[in-house]
Specification:
twelve-stranded antiparallel sheet; 300 residues; alpha+beta; 6 helices; Thiol Ester Dehydrase, Chain A; globular
Length: 300
């Protein structure tokens, strides 16, 4: 992309948006339910690294939404008006600096920190980096960096697959018991199979109106996907679940990178392996493709 094309977006760097939330515990309980379990009292007193995603939801008026279901870029958004058709959550990182409890009001500031045009195998891309800072009782609790990528899709290259039968299954996330690896530390495997009810519920909980997660016709006709797309954040949430509950303490930092999409009904394989005393490497794959990599840092 010609650098001159980036000029209209420069004014968005530094743009801020502020919001507040009462941090009702019911939202964390609902998220845990989607992930197939109940939250512990400790998790409600100090939310796991990614669980703030079900808070600070922005209300949308229909006129504010674009044809893909997302808030229109520019105007009242911190995201610049990139004209590319496809928007993807490329990855991010979260640092936990202090406990973030449910039941206590909290504030969030979102800042557009970077807009980068690039050229890749799929053509011109624009990466937008957002920073989210969450505070409670005057103390900074979470710092998140979110990476979004905008691009126009090339001709469809995804392998066709048979859509799942409508057998009443809503989706599932299950893990094996943690075991000791050959070089020490723990290893753990799991499986995620996300069906449309699970995708819809996760979209509702996280305030995500992007149509690729609930409108199959839109996915196939306008985005070139073979079926509904599993949320990158849902995959990251599943990756974090591989570490939670193992009994090694809180996760002080979590980062992830999306590599390839997973679609409704496909089974994702989750593999977590502790490396050293404080680092856990996690991979999510599907039908031989590596779809997400993540790293969890355990609190000392």
């Amino acid at each position: 992309m010609d650098p001159a094309q980036n000029a209209p977006y420069v004014e968005y760097i530094g743009r801020e948006e502020r919001s507040a939330d009462s941090m009702a515990p019911e939202r964390a309980i609902a998220l845990a339910a989607v992930l197939g379990r109940q939250p512990s009292a400790a998790e409600l007193a100090d939310l796991p690294a990614l669980w703030h995603w079900v808070y600070f939801l922005r209300p949308y008026r229909p006129a504010e939404l674009g044809p893909d279901g997302h808030l229109r870029r520019g105007e009242a958004s911190v995201v610049p008006p990139v004209p590319a058709r496809r928007r993807m959550y490329a990855g991010g990182s979260v640092k936990s600096l202090a406990p973030l409890a449910t039941g206590e009001p909290a504030e969030k500031t979102t800042i557009c920190t970077k807009v980068e045009p690039k050229t890749g195998r799929s053509g011109d891309l624009v990466f937008v980096t957002l920073e989210h800072r969450i505070s409670q009782s005057g103390e900074l609790c979470r710092v998140e960096e979110q990476s979004l990528v905008f691009f126009d899709p090339p001709p469809a290259t995804y392998r066709p697959f048979e859509l799942p039968a409508l057998d009443g299954e809503a989706g599932s996330l299950a893990f094996e018991a943690a075991a000791t690896g050959e070089t020490g530390g723990f290893v753990r495997g799991g499986r995620l199979r996300a069906m449309s009810p699970m995708l819809f519920t996760y979209s509702a909980l996280t305030g995500n109106p992007h149509k690729i997660h609930y409108d199959r016709g839109y996915c196939q006709t306008f985005e070139g996907y073979p079926g509904l797309v599993v949320h990158g954040p849902l995959l990251a949430s599943a990756a974090l679940e591989a570490v939670l509950g193992v009994g090694l303490g809180n996760v002080s930092a979590f980062e992830f990178r999306a590599r390839s999409p997973i679609f409704e009904g496909q089974q994702a394989e989750i593999s977590a392996r502790q490396q050293g005393d404080s680092t856990v490497a996690i991979e999510i794959s599907c039908e031989g493709d590596l779809c997400m990599t993540a790293t969890a840092t355990l609190a000392g």
